[in-house]
Amino acid sequence: MDKFMERAIELAAENVRDGGQPFGAVLMKNGYIVAEGVNELHKRFDVSAHAEMLAVRRAQKKMHTHVLPGYTMYASGEPCPMCLTAMQFAGIDKVYYCTSVEDAVEAGLGKSKEIYGDLKKPKEERSIKMVNLPLHEGKENPMKLWSGRS
Ligand SMILES: [Zn+2]
């Protein structure tokens, strides 16, 4: 197995022994580990404390940037939609994962698969109701403010 994936798996196993969920992540660029993370939901009151999110945050802080092109993520488990989206926003090029969201369901961790399924549905049929409240006339439109800036 790839040494970066081996490290991600090792982090995940250590995290389980520490009372956490079985997820570890390693962010690599040019053959070097730039940042690591494990799922810290058992330690933080933060729903975004997933292994990949923490690795992305640490790399961005370390490199003083919010874009990470040329980086490769090694995740012990297939990333959830939140982490996948964060990686897309960051411009990460490639993700290797070991266990799948189906494996996670079997282990009793079914939320990722559920959300992936929800995202395939039309907006109106998703579990979270999204209601558009248009801007009142005469109110400053931040979107226009943005597009009109010089
Ligand atoms: Zn995640």
Topology (SSEs and partners):
Elements: H1 3-17, E1 24-29, E2 32-38, H2 51-63, E3 72-77, H3 81-90, E4 94-99, H4 101-106, H5 111-119, H6 142-147
Parallel strand pairs: 3-4
Antiparallel strand pairs: 1-2, 1-3
Describe the protein:
With 150 residues, the chain is an alpha+beta fold. The chain is 39% helix and 17% strand. It has a four-stranded mixed beta sheet, sandwiched between helices. Strand 3, helix 3 and strand 4 form a beta-alpha-beta unit. The chain is globular and about 60 Å long. The structure holds zinc ion. The site of zinc ion has 6 residues, from helix 3.
Distance from N terminus to C terminus (CA atoms, Å) equals: 51 Å
How many distinct beta strands?
4
Widest beta sheet: strand line-up:
2-1-3-4
Radius of gyration: 18 Å
Query: What class do helices, strands and sheet pairing give?
Result: alpha+beta
Helix content: 25-40%
In what range is the share of β-strand residues? 15-25%
